[in-house]
Every structure is written in C-alpha cells, then in structure tokens.
Design brief:
PyrdxlP-dep_Trfase_small (chains A, B), alpha/beta, aminotransferase (chains A, B), Aspartate Aminotransferase, domain 2, homodimer, 4-stranded antiparallel β-sheet, pyridoxal phosphate (chains A, B), pyridoxal phosphate binding (chains A, B), 15 strands, 7-stranded mixed β-sheet, Aspartate Aminotransferase, domain 1, globular, 2 domains
C-alpha cells in the first residue's frame, strides 16, 4: 500500500460527547515537562521516593509463587474481597460501620468518577461542583453531558450556606474534595463538614466526597470525613495513588448498597474488573499495618517540600501575589495581580524551563485567569527556589508593564 | 448509629442508562459455579495451566528491582511506548504497516468496547452487531443507548451480502468477531473477510474487529484479519487475556490516528491510563519471542480439550441436538430441539451441578431460546464427559416429554 492510502482515514461520525471532548491542559503541559531540564511544578505526580518498591517487589514475588492461578485469572467485578474487607474496616471509625458490601475497587480514582457519571448523570442533569474543582472530575463527568452548577467557595473551601434550594434544584450529585483540595490545597473546616453532612442527609442526591489526599496531613489530627458524619448519604472515594503508588491504578468507592449495585453493573460493562494482580499486591503490602509507618514518612517528605516552597514564595514573590499555606496534600494555589493571565505566564515560564498549571481549566464556568496551581512534591528544594525565583521575575516584569 | 439509620439509603435519581442496566447472565451463573462441585462449561475463563506465572514472576521482580520509580508512577494515557511499538510491529503483516501512533493500550479488551461506545455512539445511534454476538459488547455499548441492528449470519458467521444499504443506513459502527466468535465459535471464511473489508472501505463508519481468540487456532494457517485487508477502515481490538493471563487486564485498540486521538481523550477521562506495572510486565515477558513457544502450548491444550468435548457430545447427545466443530478458540455452540428453552435447562443443570451459558443473552434482539454455549477450556476430560452426559440426560428427558 502507498502513503496516500495510509492517510485516507475517513471522517467517521462521532458521538455528541466525543465532539465536545478536549484534552486536559495539564496533560499537554506534562508533555513539555518530560524534558529533564524543566523544573515542573505542574504535575500531580507523587514523589517516587515515597513508593515502597521493595515491599511491592516482595509481595509480587510471594503472590506469583504461592497463588498464580488466582492472581492472574479473571476475578469479581466488585474487587478482591480481602482488600474490600480491609478498606471497610479502615473506614469504620467514629462509630460508623462500613460494610465490605459497600466497597467497590476501581481502576484508579478516576474510574470512580467515570462510573458515578455513568450511573448518575443524564444529558443536561445539573451537577454541583466547587469553584474551582478538580479538572479530571470535570473531564469525567463531561462525558455524560451535565449542566455544571458552581457552588460558592471562599478561602476555607465550599460555603455550605451557598447550597440554596435555588442553586441545588434538580441536581444529580454534589462533588467536593474536603481534604487539601485539588487545585486550591484547602481543607474544609469541621463546622462546614458538619453542615455539608446535614445538607447531604436532606438532599435527594448524593454528596460525593473525593479524598485522595486525606492521609497527607502534615501535622495534628485529621478532621472527620463528611462520609463519617452522614455515612448513608455520602459517597466516599479513596485512592492508593498518593499513599502507595499511582502506577498501580487502584482506587475505591464506598457507597450505599443500592448505588453500589448499579456501580458494579456499570463497572462490569466498563472493564470487567480491576486487575487482580495489582489488587493482591496492594493487599499484601498493607494488610499487616505497613501504612502506619509508611504514611508518616510520606507526610514528612511532603511537609518539608511544602515548607521549602512556601519559603521560596515568601523570599521571591512581589507584592500583589498571594497564596495559601496548606495543612496537607500536594498543592499551593497562587493568586496573581488581576492583570496577569496565568495561561500567558505559562508560555513565558515554559520558555524558561519552568512549568505550572494555570487555574482556568479548574473552573466549570467563568474561569478566574489570575490563578495558578503549584505542586512541590517532586522537585528538590534547590530547584524549587530556582523555579520560584524565575516565576517571580516573570510576574514582576508583568507588574511593571501594568 | 442504629440499624434503621444504616438502612436509610435514599433512592437517588439515576441516569437513564443506569436504569436500563442489568447484570450479565454469565456473571450471575458464575457466582453459582464458584462451588467446587460444579462442572462449569459456563466460563470464558482461560485455563490457569496456560498462565506463564514463572515468566511473569521473573519479569515483575526485574522491573521493581531496576526501574521502580517509572513502573509505579503515573504514565502516558496511550500506554507504554515499547509495548505499543511491539504491538505495531506484530500487526504489521502482509504488506500492512501499523504505526505505534495507532495503538492504544486498554484496561482489558472490555474497556476498548466502552471507549468505542463513548466516542462513536449517541443515543439511538444504529449499531450493527452479529446474530448472536458477544454479550459483553452488548453491555458496553448499551451504556450509550444505541439502537441495535442485527446483521444476518449463518453457520459460517456474518453474511456480507446482508449488509444492505437499508440495513446499514445511519450506523455508527459494525461490531464483529471474525475469529472463533463468542458465543458461536465460528471462524469467518476468507472470502467473507474480503467482502467485509470491501464493505468497510465504502462504509461511512468503522468496522470493529474484535479478535481476542485469533491466536487460539488449533491447526493450519491463520486467515488474514479484516484489519489487514482494509487497515485504515477497520478498528482492530486485541487482548493478552487469552494468550497470557486475563487477571492483568491488558488489551489494545489499533485505529486510524483521528479516531485514536479521540479514544485517548476518552480514556484519559475514564481511568487516566492502564496500570504502568502490568504493561511493563507483559512487555518484559513478550519482548524476546516468548509467545512463539507459548501460544502453541495453549493451542494444543485447548485443541485437546475441544476434542474431548466433541467426543463426549457425539457419544452422549440424543438426536435433534447439533453443534459446530470449532477450528480454534474456547467455545462450542449447541442447538437444542426447538421445544427446549436453554434457560430452563440451565436451572435443571445447575441443580445437578453442571453449568453452561444459555444462548438468549447473546442476541441483541429476538433471542433464539434453544441455543447454548459450552466452554471446554478449564474442565478436565473426565469431568467433561460427566457433565455432558448429565446435560444429555436432561435434554433426553425434555425430548421424551415433547
């Protein structure tokens, strides 16, 4: 065949949802940041130093030695039962009893969002999201063509008083990230969690609590999850990506059995089940309390990295630039002077081998253009200083032109 | 909290597609067949004896020793590039050159179906399927609410002459399994492949060639894939489930770049990427020609199992029962006397600890009730004889009551 034939792919009719699909801005930027000379504050990638590679290696070896027929075979859509039981026990806190029959293992937390979209969202269904919210959730839900409704937030996160009957009428779900939110790094205070739980109890739709970062608290005591305050009215999403390793793609959904059952049906049609082998590896690694010693190490690493970035920001940033001081997680949210568009700043920064994620794609509607998200977890402190100094110089140049 | 609160899960409004969702009949049966005393001809599970556990164990160990940071980290949505390159080379046969840029790694072949549904099917889009067809494809596509149109088939498989302009008008895709079809075990003859390829070249929609069983040819030469006959007009789906192990959930889509790009966007929103670690394990296992010696062993095993079942059927089945002689794959398709409903027969068989899959769920429309699918790959020959004899006795009892 000749080249002209090779290129003769016909323009097939795509679905409505596919026509609307766009690539993630983060993803396009990550391509640039694969160059080793780039100082990337863009990624939501956990630090590889935190991956328990030797423990996983030993677990993989044991599993394939002792039980290869089961570990490599098809398995139940709901997930590996010992892991579901372990998760149910782990989330049974403060008088709440989570049942293994509520736990569905997913191919990463992202799949949890896809399954919830499949099961809850019809075309033009109102879907409530924070302002801003996780870009990946917007991408997942958008495949089911909802109508987004932004819930008001302030510097502490979602404002429960904003959940008026007018705003929430007809909604199919409310999506929130109470712990160290992506992109803002904010932690929702206790009284707002309580108010959100009370709202969930009255709402005719579920509150989805996405909690991939909850374990990454730098100091002090964790706040109760919204799920623990209204366990039959909140759907809780968890992940092993930030506390073990993201490359295994292991997350989970805790939901009331009625919804769980529909999610299982949807998952069966979506990928049959999450890989058996990776589920068994994670169970082998965590079953004897490994996380009790491992998570504090990840916390300390991220806390020190965060501290380094906060110091760099303080030393370098000009007046008119502000940011939050995260209590955990992976992100700092920066507000620029209102005349600076972070998308334009990104182009200049990348030319100087520094990357971050502009804030605009995190807004379901009416984006704020003077925001940006910085991640500090994979960059050594000396490079953090260098990268922040370069960003600060670019911002200063803009400010002087204003 | 008390028990009444535990059970107070509200009835949340579900999406239209979720309301229509039903569980797979296969899945419900598989639950029964987990009892060790059941002789199950129901599963599409490959024989664990065929899993190369030691090779995978060595590969997992090497990867986690030499490159854990990459193997456990987030990775590209498209998949692990060396594996994509290997697949492109493997499918570059007969003058066809497949480009790595066409290959998308999926979380099992089932996810390929979900992604194609996402990208190609709008509500009420006509979707062409064989009569009967793979139940799992019907489940996947149904989430996108198509209108199924059954393509005529005969004992050789899909009849290309049946693809009239009237039947195919407005279709978004044609889904076919040319090699050892699930559930019928049929292999599409060469001239029909050529006719289907010619149809694909003219059609304003893609022909989807699902090929999980192609390598499981018992004897002789493989027939060319439809994809190889019209590479820019056919989307080819492959899987490692039947030639290595299904528990890893690794499949792939070969598609023209335009469609590939949309599928990547959809996959990003669906699960970000397929687990990095499992992709690397499979690449490590296959990269040096392992399949050249491994696949012949799987073929020989399945051929002998198939032969044992064919012998048992011949010895035991009464007049009026017919079946095909597969040239490969995992399934035999049995036609009962027209007065016997295979769903009712299943209930009786399960009571005697024998299981199979009734034919009806494999039909998109107007099911035939006197068909059933037998899988022979995981049952030892003595048990095959015992199970077939029991089935035959049940059928004989029905026939005598007719």
């Amino acid at each position: 065949m000749d080249q002209s034939d090779l290129k003769a792919a016909p323009a097939w009719q795509l679905s409505e949802r596919a026509i609307k699909l766009t690539s993630s801005a983060i993803r396009e930027i990550l391509k640039v940041t694969e160059r080793p000379e780039v100082i990337s504050f863009a990624g939501g990638l956990p630090a590889p130093a935190s991956f328990p590679a030797e423990e996983m290696r030993a677990a993989a070896d044991r599993i394939l030695r002792d039980d290869p027929a089961a570990a490599l075979q098809y398995s139940a859509t709901e997930g590996y039962m010992p892991l579901r039981e372990w998760l149910a026990a782990r989330h049974s806190v403060g008088g709440v009893k989570v049942r293994p029959s509520q736990v569905l293992i997913t191919t990463g937390s992202q799949q949890a969002l896809d399954l919830l979209g499949k099961v809850l969202i019809s075309t033009d269904s109102p879907v409530l999201v924070e302002t801003p919210t996780y870009l990946g959730a917007l991408q997942s839900f958008s495949l089911y063509e909802p109508k987004y409704v932004q819930v008001p937030t302030d510097e502490k996160g979602l404002v429960p008083e904003g959940l008026t009957p007018e705003l929430t009428a007809g909604a199919r779900l409310l999506y929130a990230i109470p712990n160290f939110q992506n992109p803002t790094g904010r932690r929702l205070p206790l009284e707002r969690r309580q108010a959100l739980a009370e709202f969930a109890k009255r709402a005719p739709f579920p509150v989805i609590e996405d909690d991939p970062y909850g374990a990454l608290l730098y100091a002090g005591e964790p706040l109760p999850t919204v799920h623990s305050l209204a366990p039959e009215h909140v759907v809780h999403l968890g992940s092993f990506s930030k506390i073990l390793a993201p490359g295994l793609r292991l997350g989970y959904i805790i939901a009331p059995e009625d919804l769980h059952f529909k999610l299982v049906q949807a998952k069966q049609a979506t990928d049959l089940h999450t890989p058996t082998f990776t589920q068994r590896i994670v169970y082998e690694v965590v079953k004897n309390g490994f996380l009790d010693t491992h998570i504090p190490k990840v916390r300390a690493l991220y806390r020190d990295q965060c501290e380094a970035m906060l110091d760099s920001l303080k030393r370098n940033m000009p007046e008119g630039v502000s940011w939050n001081r995260p209590e955990g997680g992976m992100f700092i949210w920066v507000t620029l002077p209102s005349n600076i568009d972070s998308m334009k700043l990104l182009a200049e920064a990348v030319a100087q081998n520094v990357a971050f994620v502009p804030g605009a794609p995190f807004f379901a509607d009416e984006p704020q253009h003077n925001k940006l998200r910085l991640s500090f977890v994979t960059v050594p402190p000396a490079k953090i200083e260098e990268g922040v100094a370069k960003l600060a110089a670019l911002i200063r140049a803009h400010a002087s032109h204003a």
